[in-house]
Amino acid sequence: MSDDIRSALGLRPVINVSGTMTSLGASIVVPEAIAAISAILPQFVEVNDLQRKASAIIARLTGGEAGFVTASCSAGISLAVAATITGNDLLAIEKLPDVSTDKNEVLVQMGHVVSYGAPVDQAIRIAGGKVVFVGQATSTHRYHMENAITDRTAAAVFVVSHHVVDYGLLNLIEFVEIAHAKDVPVIVDAASEYDLRIFLEQGADIAIYSGHKFLGGPTSGIVAGQKELVRHAFLQNMGIGRGMKAGKESIAGVMAALEAWETRDHEGVRERETSYLQLWKQALDGRPGVTALIEPDPTNNPLERMRVIVAPQEAHITAWDLSDALARGNPPIIVRDHEVEHRYFYLDPCNLHPGQEKVVAQRLAEELDKARASNEIIATPLENRSRHRFDAALRWPD
Ligand SMILES: *Cc1c(COP(=O)(O)O)cnc(C)c1O
User: Fold this and answer.
1) Closest residue by CA, ligand 1 atom 13
2) Which one of 33, 108, 119, 230 has the fewest beta carbons within 10 angstroms of its own beta carbon?
3) Could you tell me if the CB of 221 is within 6 A of ligand 1?
4) Whole-structure pTM over 0.90, yes or no?
5) Ligand 1 pocket residue status of 323, Cβ below 6 Å
6) Strand arrangement of the beta sheet that strand 344-347 belongs to
7) Model confidence over 274-302: pLDDT tens digits?
8) Alpha-carbon separation of residue 171 from 147, 177, 276, 297, 365 (angstroms)
9) Could you tell me the domains of the chain?
10) Low-confidence residues of the chain, pLDDT below 50?
11) Cβ of residue 18 lying under 6 Å from some atom of ligand 1
């Protein structure tokens, strides 16, 4: 692409088969959102009115009573938690994260305490919430949650993610039933979910989505749900929400992305992604030590990814060395490798420009041919990789 801004900025032209990652620039923003962002940037608007318009669109798409746009899903979690602690008390809102009530405990199942790039429990703590972990990593029973609820309980947070433990925990319907029996509001982190309605339908009081993931909007968070609670979360913009604000461009961009979502050819997108997976499977099938499996999304989003399992004895390279080689190459291919110690990574077809799927297939073939031709097995000890994991971050900006 000759008009690619990245070469002008001196940035590597990465190809993203990892997913909607903040560290890679999230997603390809849809043209409708780009147009809305350009149109509103030079204009003054009354931002709360713009948020009122956003509320109507968010309500229509989510089935919630109201909604607003903030900086990110992570911000939305903090604002929603803050709402349950302060209500509409403007002085309490200014005082956060100091709290003048002891009703600030926030329940989270232990198996939901994940990192999405930062710890979910921190998003609760910066809002003045005191995190109460419920159950154990791989088991929450009803009695765990029932006994965790006290007069001090302000809210309960439920995380939907491929990172959470996927067995032995309470599902959202049970979680809501137990919380609501004692009037505890439920906040759902649904950052990376396609289904904009189901969590509110299942009884959540607030559901929060990322604007910059599947929706293809600008970097933002969408808070949707029960009107009074959404209002109390919105009021946090006079407090901790200030540092998490969405400007006019993000609000207008998300509105446009939501409207585009309503009319998007979801089946067409799916077909295109399936054709990418087929192409990669063809490129990998029959190669020694490589198994390519097409698998559904773990949280039931309507998409599939390819699991590439690499047996180093036959492929002459480990999964993580292959991942690193692809990322170092030209162009750099960034795969989904957060479980790579299990000797596989994934290829995510959701964030590609047309034609990039062929480059991915070609680079996979090149690296595998090269490894196969080498006399030694390319196998960096995993410990070395983990030891150096944060080196680049820790020497940034150098
Ligand atoms: C991506 C993600 C987040 C963070 O979303 P941001 O909008 O980038 O803050 C939070 N929770 C889950 C489950 C996620 O997948």
Assistant:
1) 161
2) 119
3) yes
4) yes
5) no
6) 290-296, 304-310, 344-347
7) 999 999 999 999 999 999 999 999 999 99
8) 17, 10, 33, 18, 42
9) 5-22+266-393 (3.90.1150.180), 31-263 (3.40.640.10)
10) 1
11) no
